[in-house]
Specification:
Blueprint (H helix, E strand, L loop, with lengths): L14 H6 L2 E4 L2 E4 L4 H10 L10 H19 L2 H12 L3 E7 L2 E7 L6 H16 L4 E3 L8 E3 L12 H19 L1
Antiparallel strand pairs: 1-2, 3-4, 5-6
């Protein structure tokens, strides 16, 4: 199967947010990269997971489950989202080991089809541990994307300055010009 180009407007976010961002709005229409296994293949490849995990229906189903759990965690009350994220995390664990190079940790899965979904849920926990206040929802009207703010002063507001940021600035400029 050939890997399709990833058509999303925002890529390269941490794994958890990149998974949530597989749903986006484009010119008023909802889009879903995980609508089929071709989109799954593009997502796996874009996140360096293609060689380790097949782009099949089982992985797709599990990733959609994780995406809904993470979206609930990002957009809803924590007490409702926690059991959903925990249900994904229950499908894997970290195995601590001592290797010749020193201590190591590696994920283990009873069902390998859960691996990409589990890795995304685990990444969300890492983001919460590192800097939960930097997990943001785009301030662009109608935008459903999330990002991890890596700006020095932590004031990023839009998923993309070229898209949502530019629209917001153009809208403010238009409103000011109408006042005059």
């Amino acid at each position: 199967m050939s890997t399709a180009r990833d058509p999303r407007p925002l890529t390269g976010e941490p794994l958890a947010l990149d998974l949530v961002n597989t749903r986006w709005n484009e010119e008023g229409a909802a889009r879903d990269l995980l609508a089929d296994t071709e989109g799954l293949a593009a997502w796996l490849a874009g996140n360096g997971l293609a060689g380790d995990h097949p782009a099949d229906a089982e992985v797709l189903h599990r990733l959609r489950t994780a995406r809904e759990a993470l979206r609930a965690a990002l957009d809803g009350p924590p007490e409702q989202a926690a059991p959903l994220v925990d249900a994904v995390l229950a499908n894997g664990r970290i195995r601590a080991r001592l290797t010749a190079a020193g201590p190591a940790e590696e994920p283990e899965f009873a069902d390998p089809a859960w691996a990409p979904a589990w890795l995304a849920a685990r990444n969300y926990l890492d983001l919460l541990t590192r800097a939960p206040e930097r997990i943001r929802h785009c301030a662009g009207g109608g935008c459903v994307l999330h990002f991890f703010d890596t700006s020095r002063n932590g004031t990023r507001r839009w998923c993309s300055m070229a898209a949502c940021g530019n629209r917001a600035k153009a809208s403010r400029h238009y409103a000011r010009s109408k006042e005059n």
